[in-house]
Amino acid sequence: MALTDDDVRHVARLARLGLTEEEVGSLRGELSAILAYAERVQTVATADVPPTSHPYPLANVLRADEPRPSLTSAEAISTAPQAEGGRFRVPRIVDEES
Amino acid sequence: MTTTTTVEQATNYEAVIGLEVHIELSTRTKMFCGCAIDFGGEPNSRTCAVCLGQPGSLPVVNAAAVEAAIRLGLALGCEIAPSSRFHRKNYFYPDMPKNYQISQYDVPICLRGHLDIPSERGVRSIGITRVHMEEDTGKSSHVGGSGRITGATHSLVDYNRAGIPLLECVSEPDLRSAEESRVYLTELRAIVLALGISDAKLEEGSMRCDANISLRPVGHTVFGTRVEVKNMNSVRSLGRAIDYEIARQNEVLTSGAPVVQETRHWDENTQRTSTLRTKESVDDYRYFPDPDLLPVEPASEDVERLRAELPELPAALRARLAETRGLSPAQVSVLAGTGLSALFVQSVAAGAPASEAANWLANEVTGWAGAQGVEPVAVPLTGAQLAELVGLVADGTLSAKLARQVLEAVLSGEGDPRAVAHARGLAQISNSAELEEIVDSVIAEHADAAQRVRDGNHKAIGALVGAVMRATQGRANPSLVNELLQARLSA
Amino acid sequence: MTAELLTCGARELAARMAAGEVSAVEVAQAHLDRIAQTDDHLHAFLRVLSDDALATAADVDSRRAAGAPLGALAGIPVALKDVLTTKGVVTTCGSKMLEHYRPVYDATVVQRLQAADAVIVGKANMDEFAMGSSTENSAFGPSRNPWDLDRVPGGTSGGSTAAAAAFQAPLAIGTDTGGSIRQPAALCGVVGVKPTYGLVSRYGLVAFASSLDQVGPIARDVGDAALLLEVIGGHDACDSTSIPIPPPSYGAELERGVEGLCVGVVREFLATEGLAPDVRARVEDGIARLGKLGAELVDVSLPHAAYGLPAYYLIAPSECSSNLSRFDGVRYGLRVPGETTEQMMSRTREAGFGREVKRRIMIGTYALSAGYYDAYYVSAQRVRTLIIRDFAAAHEQCDVLVGPTAPETAFPLGSKTADPIAMYLQDVFTIPSSLAGAPALSVPVGLDDAGLPVGLQVMAPVLGEGVMFRVARALEADLALDPTPRGPNSLEPPDEEHDAGSDAQPVRLVP
Question: Which domain does A30 fall in, by range?
C-alpha cells in the first residue's frame, strides 16, 4: 500500500502526533513498506473464517455493584503535570465537544 | 429570520426527527470500576486508577448496569442480543481519561424496539433502533471568558463523572414534529422512572437528549440532509429547538440553498441554534472490539425473569387507570405521569374513593413533593394513610382545611392521620352539645351582630361563624356551627 | 561464598535461608553489590531499589526468626521489568513519556511478589512501551548482552534477561507480546516463559497490545521459572481477561521426563529462510536428545505460520495505537506546553514517544481507520483464527511442539536499527503462539559457532504449562549447560570479579 505524505499527515492528526516534515517523509516510506508486507494476510483471510478478538473464550465477566475505596483527591491529582483547585489544568481547548 | 411561537411548516416539507437520549444510571458504582457514584464531594475524589485511565488499569463490567440495560430494552419491546460486545470509540478530548470511550458499536445489547406515543393522529409507534451501554466522560470547566469554551484562557477537568454508566437510546427517524418529540421524551422518561434505573433529570444532566432533524418534501421517502442539535436541557427547550430548526431549514430550502450537514448548539438565551462543528472536522472513531472486555451473553432464563419482574409501565398503567370508574382523563394523566400511580392504587385498595384519592395526590401530595424537592415516587406516605385521611374528611372528623395540615404532619413523619389529628387536637368538633356552649358564648360576646341576624341580615352570621371557628381553633364543623347559630338566633 | 550466593538458583537460595545458612539481608546485599559492580557495563537496570530491597530482606529475616510463616519467594531477589506499575516508585516503560511517573497503585503481579516476600531489587530496562526486539528502543540507552557486551540482549525484556544471565538476580519478571520474553531469553542463555494468555493478571501491566500481552517468569533454570509462575499466576478479579482458575502448581510434573510424550517438530520453522544454520543445528541436536530420552518425534505443520508475522504487525499496532492514546500530557507523564490543549497534546506525544512507538501508532491508526478496518484489522484477526486452528490440529497428535526460539543469536548493537522489518523478523517463531494465546518457553540448548546462546522453544496447548515445563526440564537436565556467560567480550562472572580481565578457561558443554 503506497501512502502519500497527505495520508501520513492525516493519520498523524488522528493520532495527535505532531510530526515534523522530515518525519512525515521518512515515515511515509517505512509505513508503506510495513503495510505492504502486512497486506499478505488478505491472501488467506477469506470471509468464511471468523475473526478472533479474544484468544481465551470467556463471557459474562461481571462484577457486583459494590463500592470499593476511591483515591483521595490529592492522590488522584498527584500525577498531574498541572493542577488547580483539585482539578487537572489544561490550556484552552479549541474543539467544542458538548 | 422570523421566529414564531407556532411553527408554520411550508406546505411542501415534512420534518423527519430522530432522538438520541443518554440516561445516566443510578447504580451504586461506575460502569467499569468500583468507585461509588456520589454527588458533591471534592473534585477527583470519586476516582481510581481505572476511571482516571492510569497506565495499566483495566475495566470490569458492572452487572447492575447490564441488568438496567436489559430492563430498559425489554420495556421498549427490544430484542435482547444473545451476545453483545464492547467497542472502543477513539477520539482525543481532555475529559476522556483514556482518549477512547468504551461503548457498544455494531453489536449492542438491545435492538429493534418501539415506543408508542399518543399524538393528534392517534397512537404512533416510534421505532427504537437500539439501546446500548457506554461510560460517561469527566467534566471540564472553562476559566476566563463567559464559561463557554470560546474566550477561555484554560480549562480544569474533574473526573468524578468519568465512568458513570450511561445507556444510549436511539430512536428511528419516525418523529414528525416538536410536539411528538416532547411526548416521546416525556414517555421515555416516565418509563425510565417506572423502572427505577435513573432519576432522569434533564436539567441536571442525568438524562440528555440530542435531536437529529432533516426536512424532505411531503410524500418523498429519501431523507434530506440531517442536522444534529445539542444542548436542550428541558422538554420545553427540546420542543422550541426543534421548532426553530424546522423553520430554519425550511427557510434555507425554500431559498434554494442546501442544508449543511453539521452539529448545532441550542442557545436557551437567544432561542436559536448555531453551528458547533461541521462534518469535515468530525473524527474517524476507528471503532474496534475492546480486547480488555469479554462478550455479554445474558442467559435466556435471566432475561425472562427480568421481563416477568418488570413493573407496570406507564402506557399500561394509563390504560388501567382510564378504566377505573370515577377518574377524569386529566386525573389519569397526572397520576400516570408523576409516579404517584402506585400510591393511588394502594389508596384505592385501602378503601379510598378513586376520585378523592386522585385529587389529593394530584394536588396536595404533588405540591408537597415539589416544595420539598422529593421525587413523587419517594413520597413518605402509604396508601393506607391516604385512605385513612380521606375517610376522616368523609366522616366529618376533619375539615378539608385541617386535613391538609394533618397530611403535612403525616408526610413529616409524625404518624398516621388519625393519631396526628388526635395528638394535635385537630379533630373536628361535630358534637352539638359541645358546640352549643361555645355558640352561646359567642352570641353573648357579639350581641350587635347577633341582633342584626335576628333582624333579618343573614350575612351578618358570617362574623359569628368566624368567631366560633376562632374559639375552636378552626376545629368546629362549619355547617353544624351555621345550623346551631341559625337555630339559636331564630328562637 | 558471595559468588555462590549469586550463582545458585532461587530454590537453592530458599533452602539455604530456610536452613539458616545465610540471611535474606546477606543474599540481597550480595546481589546489590553485583549490580553495583556490573551494571555500568550492562545497564540492565533503570532503577535499583537498594533501600527497599534491604528493608524487605531485613523484615523477612526478623519474621523468620520469630517463626512467622513466610511466602514462597521469601528473601529471593527479583528484577522487575519497568512496564509494571509500582506504587510511588517511578515506572518509565523505557520512555521519556513516563520518565518521572510515579504510579498510584501496584500491579497485581507486584502485589503477589510482595505477598510472597520476594525482594524486588530494581526496575529493569526495556524497549520503549514494549516495542522492539533488542532493548535498543529504550529512551534511556540499551542494555547489553552479558555474553558479549557489544551485542544486544534481545527485547523487549532485555534488561530482565540480562540481569538474570549476569547473576544480578536469580529471578526476573518480563512481559511477552510477540516474543519479548522468549527471544531475549534465548539470546541471553536463560529460561523465559510466556504463559497462557489470561493465566497471569495484566492489571498494572502498562498495555501495549491487550489481546497479546502477558507477564512471565525469567530464570536460569526451568524449575525456578516454574516456581515464579506459581506465585504470579491465577485469577485476578481486576482483569476481565484473567482465566478463572486458582494459582497453578507445577512441582509434581516437572521431573517426570519425556518418555511416552509426543513431540511435534514444526516443519515450517526449521525451513524458514533467515534461520541461521548453526542455530538450526543446535536446535535439531536438542530435538534429537528429546528423542533419545524417550519422546516420540513427529513432523508437524503449522500451515499458516508464515502469516503470523504480518497479522501480528496489524493487530498489535492497532491495539497499541488505542492503548497509547491516554499519553497526552493531561493527567500524568510528560507535558510539553502549548497554547491550546490540542497543541499541547501533539507536542507532548511528538516529544515523548520514540521512533518505533510512533511508527506502530501510525500503522495501528491507519489499520483501524475508516475504509481500511476490514482489509487490515479484521483480516489479521481472521488469520489469528487460522493459526489457532493450526495449533489445535497439531496438538491432536502432539503434547508439545518444538522449534527454534529466534532465527539468530545476539546481533551487534546498531546492526538492525535501520530496517524495521529486519527487526520484526526476530519474532517469526514466537508470534504464532502469541496469536494463539498458547504457552511457550525458551530453554537454552547450546551455543552457536561464535559462542553465543541458542534457545529452543517448547510450545504447549492452552493451560498446558505442566507438560511444557516437563519437556524443557528433561532437555535441560540432559544438557547440563553452564549458564555462565563466557567469551572474549563477556561480562566478568562472579567468581572472577576480583581478577578483571582474567582469561579463565570457559567450560563449554557443546553437545
Answer: 5-43
Q: Which of residues 28-87 of B touch A (CB under 8 A)?
A: 28-29, 33-36, 42-49, 52, 54, 60-66, 83, 85
pLDDT over threshold 90, residue C111: yes
List the subunits that have 3+ CB pairs under 8 angstroms with A: B, C
* B94/A contact by beta carbon, under 8 A: yes
From chain C, the residues in CB contact with B293 under 8 A are 240
Asked if the structure places residue A21 within a domain, the reply is yes
Burial B443-464 (b: 16+ CB within 10 A, else e): beebeebbebbeeeeeebbeeb
Q: How many domains does chain A have?
A: 1
CB contact under 8 A, C310 and A49: no
| Residue ranges of domains in chain C | 2-306+381-482
Predicted confidence (pLDDT) at residue C496 exceeds the cutoff of 60: no
Cα separation, C92 vs C86, in Å, equals 10
Give the number of B-C residue pairs with CB atoms closer than 8 Å. 100
**Strands across the sheet with C453-459, in order?**
C45-48, C119-124, C77-81, C171-176, C214-219, C191-194, C440-447, C453-459, C400-404, C262-266, C296-300
Shortest CB distance from C304 goes to which of A44, A46, A54? A44
- Maximum distance among all Cα pairs of chain C, rounded to whole angstroms: 70
Q: Can you give the pTM of this predicted structure?
A: 0.88
Phi first, then psi: give them for residue B395, nearest 5 degrees: -90, 10
- The CATH number assigned to the domain with range C2-306+381-482 reads 3.90.1300.10
pLDDT digits (tens, 9 = 90+) for A46-70: 999 999 989 999 999 999 999 999 9
By the 10 Å C-beta count (0-12 exposed, 13-18 middle, 19+ buried), C92 is classed as buried
- Is A19 within a domain? yes
CATH code of the domain covering residue A17 = 1.10.20.60
Tell whether A24 is covered by a domain: yes
Asked if residue A14 belongs to a domain, the reply is: yes
Write out chain B residues lying below 8 Å of C202, CB-based.
56, 58
- Contact flag C330-B92 (C-beta cutoff 8 Å): no
Domain architecture of chain B: domains with CATH: 13-302 (no CATH), 312-423 (no CATH), 432-490 (1.10.10.410)
Any CB–CB contact under 8 A between B284 and chain C?
A: yes
